[in-house]
Amino acid sequence: MISEQELAELSFADAPRIITEGVPGPKGTELLAEAPEFESMTRGGGGFPLVFDEGRGVTVKDPDENLYIDVSAGVGVSSVGRSHPRVLETIARQSQKLMHASDISNTRRAELARKLAAIAPPGLRDNCISYFAQSGSGALESAIKFARRVTGRNQIVAFHGAYHGVWGASNAITTGDQYRRGYGPFMGGVIHAPYPYAYRFPLPLGDKSCEEICGDYVDYLLNTPYTAADDVAAVIVEPVQGEGGYVPPAPEFFLKVKAACEQHGALFVADEVQAGAGRTGKMWAIEHAGVEPDMITFGKGMGGDLPMAGVIMRKELAQQLDDMSQPQTFAANALSAAVTLTNIDIIQEGELVARAAQVGREALEKLQVASKNLPIIGEVRGRGLMIGIELVMDRETREPADQETMMKVVMGLLANGVIMVPCGRNGNVLRLMPSLTITRDYLNKAVDILLQVLDNV
User: Could you give all domains of the chain from N- to C-terminal order, each with its CATH number?
Assistant: First the structure.
């Protein structure tokens, strides 16, 4: 396993360091004020009060030379940290040979397709075909089309709290109000079912877990007459729900959903865009459940510094798709493919997946212990380096922390040199999702600063 010293050398050495009187500093403030004049603020980070100028490992500098520990990893993208030396070497070498090749084969994408077959989860490993895209949204759009084509069916089942993208079909199965309001009507044939979010489960549990109840409901939906779910092509599920609040269900839920899919004849699709690439302590988060998916979608952390996403599906399914029917001009260009291969090598050779499980468990336990004395924390949950801290106004009623409180927390973190991005159905969950290359020192510093900020809100 890679040493702490080796990891420390990947980042700036003296983070966090805030040298301006406030954040953002004067240069950052000027750039943020100017941005809406030239760029659409529909982008996800348009309102975030920070400007990136330079990144190294798990640290970021803004234009005013303030230095931060980034525990958001570019929303899970920078799996091996920013500007990893081996990634930079790959970019320099590959960019002199070949970058864009249209959708025509190139040596690097062919090598990447072989590699993905070798590291795919059980059920797909060495029995799969990869289709490349440029973003998570694109991967989900493709998975939906492929599922409909190979099954000859129309309907898609997804879950409350889901985030699968913001295009056409992917937006239809995403549930966040801010992504849907005013953009309809959406693709028809979508059915949403409850996701096992134990902390905010809307139904009485009795002697069952929420995983049992939600799994049984999917089985009822798919395999009982008169539910109107009579033409389901696929059930698409996040193994750990991301934007919905970093919710990690127990394996029982996925086992029940998979069994229901098999009985109905629907495909089981695991959306690994945010939870994959080793983040949860397994290369693919669905591996925690012991379920064999028919397809997985990937993105974010696989490509790291460059865009890379796609679908991995069973060969039997891929062979039913029409050749040359789904062009993606910029997907898996030689440069992105080469960098993805390097990212995978760094993750495997440094044993970063096992390290994510170990270091993530340490951070989770530290936060859970500290939460007992911080009433603002309702729950700490997670798997590996995918940890959610749910903030509340009242621990007894579980009333979600309001927007004003969340802004105080985010700004308090930034003022102390920590970048942390909220998520959740109520926008009240802080996500601890650093690069897999974060040192224990920087992770502990970030957690300590978080606890200090929460103690003073």
Answer: 4-71+352-456 (3.90.1150.10), 86-349 (3.40.640.10)
